[in-house]
Amino acid sequence: MRFLPTFGRSLALVLAASGLFAACNSAPAGPVTETGTLATGDLTLTGGEFQDGYTVRAKSGQWIKVDLRSTAFDPYIILRTPSNQQSENDDHGGDRNHSQVVYQVAEDGQFQIIATSFATGETGAYTLVYEVTDAEPAATPGTTAGDAPPSGTAPDAPPDTEPDPTPPAADEPEGESGADATGGGGGVKI
After folding, report:
1. Are 100 and 77 in contact (CB under 8 A)?
2. Most exposed residue of 33, 110, 113, 183, measured as fewest CB within 10 angstroms of its CB?
């Protein structure tokens, strides 16, 4: 068996690592499903709505589709861009138990997904499904023209949807970790 000289082994390792890195950052991994609960003690928006946050990485030209469903409260979804613009939805297709945002990414970076409720103080279980794709996602029944923002744009944040900057009390947990598959559509609960 023939051994590569040190330079050759190093080059082989670099090439293998870069190929692995490229594979991890090129094709989205598919939908990510998170189950959670809005509860007393969670972080709140400035309007008092409880919130759970997740992060996901995406590149310009990709699409992010986020679905939030709950039968315990009126779900409201916010997708915030790296430049702090946001797209949001309540009552997707007229369904009080479903919110959805479909967004074409205009800038590379980390996006925040905020699962919250329409009204202050609502609590309960929810299911969040999000996905980063290279092609425009298939329509979900109930899609209306107002559900998806124009390509690469999002309205400015209304004043009552800014996160409350007050950190939780020392005895309150800051949240559980979610999947972390950056660049492949995975994310992290924030």
Report:
1. yes
2. 33
